[in-house]
Design a protein that fits this description.
This protein is an alpha/beta fold and about 325 residues long. It folds into two domains: about 200 residues, 3-Layer(aba) Sandwich (Rossmann fold), CATH 3.40.50; about 90 residues, Alpha-Beta Complex (UDP-galactose 4-epimerase, domain 1), CATH 3.90.25. The chain is built from eleven helices and 14 strands. Helix 1 links the parallel strand 1 and strand 2. Bound molecules: 2-amino-3-ketobutyric acid. 2-amino-3-ketobutyric acid binds next to strand 8.
Length: about 325
Amino acid sequence: MGNILVTGALGQIGSELVPALRAHYGEGHVVASDIRLPRAGEVISEGPFEILDCTRMSAISEVMRRHDVTKIYHMAALLSAVAEEKPQAAWDLNMGGLYRVLEVARQNGAAVFLPSSIGAFGPTTPRDGTPQDTIQRPTTIYGVTKVASELLCDYYALRFGVDARGLRLPGLISHVAKPGGGTTDYAVDIFYRAIRYGRYTCFLSADTRLDMMYMPDAVCAMIEVMEADPARLRHRNAFNVAAMNFTPTELATEIKKHVPGFTIDYDVDPVRQAIADSWPRCMDDSAAREEWGWRPQWDMAAMTRDMLEKLGKRLKPAR
Ligand code: AKB
């Protein structure tokens, strides 16, 4: 078996994907990479690590050849809110990185996993039961890069036979690494604040419903879609995957069951609110269920219990 390269390995997804891939395929078979070295406290398990700028094609090529890489999980990207602050940088990294990863994959016969997002949809997309194949006219630079990335992956599959697969991920909730600049980040921050201060000020409005997923489900989905029998895949790339959806009020009510006295208030950030208002409330993921057996394990109640338990071991109340 060849080896797996993970770009952006120190980010929110990579921090859990790398250990999961290492548990599944063996420590030495998974090369973690990022633009910088891990900082103190950032542990992504034992195993090979490379500093890699994935906008440099020769650097990706060199790492791939040296480690005999046959599969790339390409996680390096800017998230929606930070991308809106720096649209030019978002285009350079999100598109420039993917283009180079796909090119090197084509030259070396490697497969590629791409995380797309609910951000690939826009205000004219049906927001409830969002179909697998539907209108995609996002109004954010993040969304523009996600749609273009989905199309580029399809093009490389069709034109060059690159086995490029991917998922449209919802907001991801994790107790390991915090997300860096997304619109759904509130659903992680709220747990840290609940434990430390017993209250949270939310930057989205009380009734903003969005699709969400607990990271263990997301990591399983990423491994499963890459292992799926290609003969069963009609879509191959950009599968809708859903697990739970809730509003900030509903999540706060669930947290209150475990943190008595927890309170939430709202100070809406118009930029992130506009982004959230253009995204699906609840995607239809039947294509993923039918074509490769997607089944989420975590709902809001189980995720909330686990987040509070895991974070509660690391964080002390500030009160
Ligand atoms: C973000 O909020 O930008 C991401 C996403 C849903 O793609 N979490």
